[in-house]
Amino acid sequence: MAVIGSTGSIGMQTLEVARAHPEDFRVLAVTANRQMHKLIDIALEFRPEFVGVRDEEQANAVRAALPYSVEIGYGVEGLITAAAWCGVDLTVNALVGAVGIQPTIVALQSGIDVALANKETLVAAGDLVWEAARAGMSRVIPIDSEHSAIMQCLLGNDLASVAKLILTASGGPFRGHSKERLRTVKVADALAHPTWKMGAKITIDSATMMNKGFEIIEAHHLFHKSYDQIDVVIHPQSVVHSLVYYHDGSMMAQLGTADMRIPIQFALYGGQKRVFAPWPTLDLGALGALHFEQPDRVTFPALDLAYACGRAGGTVPAVMNAANEVAAIAFLEERLSYDAIVDTTVRVLNAHEKVASPTLEQVLEADKWARLTAEEFIIKRGTSL
Ligand code: MG
Hints:
The chain has 385 residues and is α/β, with parallel strands linked by helices. It has 3 domains: 2-142, NAD(P)-binding Rossmann-like Domain (Rossmann fold), CATH 3.40.50.720; 146-287, no CATH class; 313-383, RNA polymerase sigma factor, region 2, helix turn helix motif (Rna Polymerase Sigma Factor, Chain: A, Orthogonal Bundle). The protein has helices spanning 9-20, 36-46, 56-65, 75-83, 101-109, 119-136, 145-154, 179-182, 187-191, 200-208, 210-223, 261-268, 284-287, 302-312, 316-332, 340-351, 360-381; strands at 2-4, 29-31, 50-53, 71-74, 90-93, 113-116, 140-142, 162-169, 230-234, 240-246, 251-255. The strands form 2 sheets. It has a 7-stranded parallel beta sheet, sandwiched between helices. It has a 4-stranded mixed beta sheet with strand order 9-8-10-11, with helices on one face.
């Protein structure tokens, strides 16, 4: 396999699964953008044939640190080279953000299955991803816990008998808050996710519920269901990872601990095979009760925004994704208030002229435009913070 984005939360857990099953997995290519010490440790342990880094300077540093001969690349080229490295059967895309689009498409076109944790890829370029998978006769296997759950609930059933896909959402750290109260929240409050331990950007997306918005669009592309057939229910305990509601009245759910190694391992085995794992298991008796409630669509406008952008299609979801990414990072850097994250995204969307059936170039162009426009809005807004 290739692991792009190997030093992040999903990347490290992917390597942990690979480490637990050395007879089944060989890591041939890895990449990282920061955390070079971690990357060097990974290379020393797994001895990949290719290592991708951010720039030339990093490339030289990594080459000097490795005692064996290894091919090194950098930038987007490095990601693409890693994702389609010769001999790779499965590329794990654990990148954060829209930078994951091109490597996914190239891997799929080359006939390599992609285990996808990088949800921005499907949000921004869902149609292009499927074209690439068709062309390469390859598969996209979700790592995201909700989509892994849905994939598992669909096993052995007919997709045509599905009435609804139901995504569960923890509701993030601000569940139950009023819109007013959210105005003054700080970065540390938003980073305190109640159930999942994740990277910083996705944790902010969980706090705004934009993450769930992305997952709605992701589900639409993964399972070919209309937006009317995708629902969200709040489930603060993160035990039921998602459900499928069939038209005979049955509902199937997948349950487990909030441990990403479970969906990662399932994806690494192609979404087909269950292999023993030593991780802690769920104790239903100790858990007692499971709680569900409707999402608060007023306090968390990102949900309906995502439905609207998904339905609009074309370049609109790419713009939503890019503007949100810039705004979420600006919030993390304390350059933007919490409630201005979705606000900024909406303003960028309002200024966008949609391209209906975009090429990859047009998606990337819309992405770039949205980033610049979002940054402009944030700088202008700055003084009023
Ligand atoms: Mg998720």
